[in-house]
Write a structure and sequence with these properties.
InterPro entries: Fe3_Rdtase_TM_dom. With 238 residues, this protein is an all-alpha fold. It has twelve helices and no strands.
Length: 238
């Protein structure tokens, strides 16, 4: 159910609110920060209720953030002439920033759970989980900061592009991290965990296939470009 809710909210952002998000992103950022503050408050006072049971997982389990990150990543593998790419590309940066804001809830919640156990964190699965989480958080911070226009404009274009390539390992590692968190519950038959892993795996699998296909197509285009140019020169000379 939380995936369906996250899907509806994401659809509203990328379709209904695309133009205002592009022109006036600040109110959306503030709204996301307000939802994050609501999550922190509700967690602190241990609030309960049916509405809260739907809202809390969106923030705590990173469902909404992961889906927004997925949209950002999928835009990059769509064909240049794809109308969906044309619609989403102008708000890709804004969606990335929103996803980072929503991900903070997940990071803070689990940091508060693991930090008290730091003395035993350097052995076994806990050490791997903490190390992976720290790496993902560092990558997200770099991508988040460089997504703002003021930072981007202060950097060389080539440097900025190279930094943005960190999005690929970040996205893959995020999936691995979420899968590892859900796996213990899934192994004991928790339906929500099983469905969540299945959905995340399907999304990641589709992305890997599309990204690989695009990389192969780009390489073929580069390989055939010189031959095409030579043919044109020969035709012109004739």
């Amino acid at each position: 159910m939380r995936f369906v809710i996250a899907l509806i909210l994401s659809f509203a952002l990328v379709w209904v609110c695309a133009k205002p998000l592009k022109k006036h992103p600040a109110p959306f950022y503030l709204g996301a920060a307000a939802l994050l503050a609501l999550y922190f408050w509700g967690t602190a006072v241990n609030i309960h209720g049916e509405a809260w049971s739907y809202f809390q997982p969106l923030m705590q389990r990173c469902a909404l953030a992961f889906l927004l990150f997925s949209i950002v990543m999928f835009v990059g593998v769509l064909n240049e002439r794809n109308p969906l790419r044309a619609h989403l590309m102008p708000i890709r940066r804004q969606l990335s920033i929103l996803a980072c804001i929503f991900a903070v809830g997940h990071i803070v919640f689990y940091s508060a759970s693991y930090i008290p156990r730091i003395t035993s964190a350097f052995s076994g699965n806990l050490a791997f989980s903490l190390g992976l989480a720290a790496l993902i958080t560092a990558l997200m911070a770099v991508l988040w900061i460089t997504s703002f226009q003021v930072v981007k404009h202060g950097m060389k274009a080539l440097t900025w592009k190279r930094i943005q390539r960190l999005a690929y390992p970040f996205y893959v590692l995020t999936y691995v991290h979420l899968a590892l968190l859900l796996m213990p519950s899934a192994l004991v038959g928790n339906t929500v965990a099983v469905v969540s892993i299945a959905v995340y795996s399907a999304v990641m699998g589709a992305y890997v296939v599309l990204r690989s296909a695009k990389a192969l197509a780009d390489r073929r285009a580069e390989a055939t470009a010189p031959a095409t140019e030579l043919d044109l020169e020969t035709a012109a000379a004739a």
